[in-house]
Amino acid sequence: MNMNQLITIVSGLPRSGTSLMMKMLEAGKMEVVTDNIRKADVDNPKGYYEFERVKKIKEDSSWLNDTRGKVFKMISLLLLDLPPTENYKIIFMRRHMDEVIASQTKMLKRLDQKPSADDDKMKAYFSKHLDRVYAWLEQQENIDTLFVSYNDILSNPETNAEKINQFLENHLDVEKMAQVVDTSLYRNRG
């Protein structure tokens, strides 16, 4: 398929490395769809790469056509609302669950918010949610998914950049993608 026709999405749980993947794709010369409403901060010093309209995809997907040949970020919960009339390439970020929970808890504390549940309950909720999303993805004939480990990117950026480039039809600058991986931002280790 022509790269300019692809609808590409970076997805995963919150705090799973989706912003890093967006940064890598941008460095690789892929146009990113973001509105820059949520600014970079201590938790994501390189930016969040969010696009607010994504959150309302169930009610309004009219903007989706304008994302062809570009990439946007969408939390895993919202994937289930994608219109089935399109074809998608999804880069799904995975990260050790303890690290996801630790990162989320740290961010909420910094924002003076309390987690909605204790760590064990959140782990169980996220695991159940991921099982549901993975099963759903397997059934979608219009979705091609590449699962990428955040933890592996940090130790093998070049290998992962090449794998992502192949998944996205070999149009990206692999060297520049690998160069933006900043291991100093790996602060919530499992």
Describe the structure.
- This protein has 7 helices and 5 strands, in the order E-H-E-E-H-E-H-H-E-H-H-H.
- It has 190 residues and is an alpha/beta fold.
- The protein has a single domain, classed as P-loop containing nucleotide triphosphate hydrolases (Rossmann fold).
- The chain has a 5-stranded parallel beta sheet with strand order 2-3-1-4-5.
- Helix 3 crosses helix 4.
- The longest helix is centred in the last third of the chain and has 21 residues.
- It is globular, with a radius of gyration of 16 Å.
Which features would summarize this protein structure in a list?
Rossmann fold; alpha/beta; five-stranded parallel β-sheet; 190 residues
CATH topology: Rossmann fold
Structural class: alpha/beta
The tally of helices reads 7
Using the alpha-carbon principal axes, give the shape. globular
Compact overview of the structure:
The protein is of the alpha/beta class.
Secondary structure topology:
Blueprint: E1 7-12, H1 18-27, E2 31-32, E3 70-75, H2 76-79, E4 88-94, H3 97-110, H4 119-139, E5 143-149, H5 150-155, H6 157-167, H7 174-179
Parallel strand pairs: 1-3, 1-4, 2-3, 4-5
